[in-house]
Amino acid sequence: MTLLDTSVPTVTIGAGAPSPEDVVAVARRDAHLLIDPAALEGMAGSRGVIEALAADPQPHYGVSTGFGALATTFIDGDRRRQLQLSLVRSHAAGAGPEVEREVVRALTMLRLSTLLTGRTGARPVVAETYAAMLNAGITPIVHEYGSLGCSGDLAPLAHVALAATGEGPVRDGHGIAMGAANALACAGIEPLVLEEKEGLAVINGTDGMLGQLLLALADLDLMVTTADVTAGMSIEALLGTDAPFAADLQALRPHPGIGASAHNLTRILDGSGIVASHRGPDCTRVQDAYSLRCAPQVGGAVRDTIAHARLVASRELAAAVDNPVVTPDGRVESNGSFHGAPVAYVLDFLAIAVADLASMAERRIDRLLDPARNHGLPPFLAHEVGVDSGLMIAQYTAAGIVSELKRLASPASVDSIPSSAMQEDHVSMGWHAARKLRTSIDGLSRVLGIELLAASRAQALRAPLEPSPATEAAAMLVSQSAGPGPDRFVAPELEAAASAVRDGHVLAAVEHRIGRLSHT
């Protein structure tokens, strides 16, 4: 699959843990889902354990009792369907703006994946209904607020479950808002009637925060390598040197991410006439500023942070998160797997890394615009200094975004607030960590877009010196807007540059020219 591949894949689910790529394909590319028949057989087997407990006159949590602080209340058999539906209705209590379609699809697929482990005790029809909704493009409307990241992402998952029963609002495959009953009928899907334990099975997971982590990792794989490109462009335009990126120097501090980033910079700057122009003995500068010379140290540390987050995500993908769970030997046991701490911590960690990567890029933007530090370029890269302001305010925009990213780097996972009459007295806030990371990644794409514009304009002002093939390929994407000239309406140019970063066009252009760079 190429970076900009637009084909619609098919994903088989239930035969082991799904891959991150499968989740992203379903979330973003509407991949068609097929369920492994063996997984449905496993579900049917564990369902027999739940049905035996349902017939037992002794209370069993989630099967014949209330939930949370009401776990000691026994529910008679003729009221248990109502119990399950009431659970879903009451927990579908989200508020605020509508959550993005890709997030809802990701969390729905991840809940489906857990159902197919057979550890939740749900019937096969529950999994089949979820798969059918995803394949029909039906997206339940989920809201920004409601999850505390403990007992899972309860409210977001409850909105999905409610839609599966034919209640609540959804969007169909064309994005049109309608009632769930209408959408299911149009798609030929029978509304789900939840039996014992199934209300818990469909809402008790970390799927919302995990889905957003997987989407963030896909974005950051692109962003951190694109940051190597924009850093290389700035280093070149500021008459910096590629000498510190030599492999033997990086081997003295053997962090894998740093080595990969330094290797990328060496390749990106290879063949640069601008760099070659000051490589000889006449160059009196001993060392570049940190934002140039230490680009691999920051970019590399971000890569290693991503690697750690990816390891946590892989473990979570292999998990069966529910409470209680049906064990392989037929026991039904309460547990705390729904607590989102493992995912919440890495979401917060990534927000710190994103803020620092953007911060270093902003320092290079400022340097490109400052005549005291940009080695002969006009102030603010303006066409007619005094009449034109050039990219002065674009740097303000970058600085404002970076300031916001620093605020968003404050961890959500250190904040806990008790709920459910103190039964749930410690929560992870992982959903909130995921939501702010999405905002941070958007901000990073905008800062990198501004660096792309500024470095491209500065590079052009170095003519007749020739850029490297790699940086030239990136600059050509914005050459019409980034080229020197009188001031013009700059906001659309900033948006177009950010889109080129976000959509992968910058990286694709560079890799088309020089081959694949090192990714995370």
From TrEMBL:
Subcellular location: Cytoplasm
Primary location: cytoplasm
GO process terms (BP): L-histidine catabolic process
The protein's enzyme class: lyase
Keyword terms of this UniProt record: Histidine metabolism, Lyase
Molecular function (Gene Ontology), one example: histidine ammonia-lyase activity
SUPFAM superfamilies: L-aspartase-like
GO CC annotations, alphabetized: cytoplasm
Pathway: Amino-acid degradation; L-histidine degradation into L-glutamate; N-formimidoyl-L-glutamate from L-histidine: step 1/3
Reaction catalysis annotation: L-histidine = trans-urocanate + NH4(+)
Family membership: Belongs to the PAL/histidase family.
UniProt protein name: Histidine ammonia-lyase
Lineage: Bacteria, Bacillati, Actinomycetota, Actinomycetes, Micrococcales
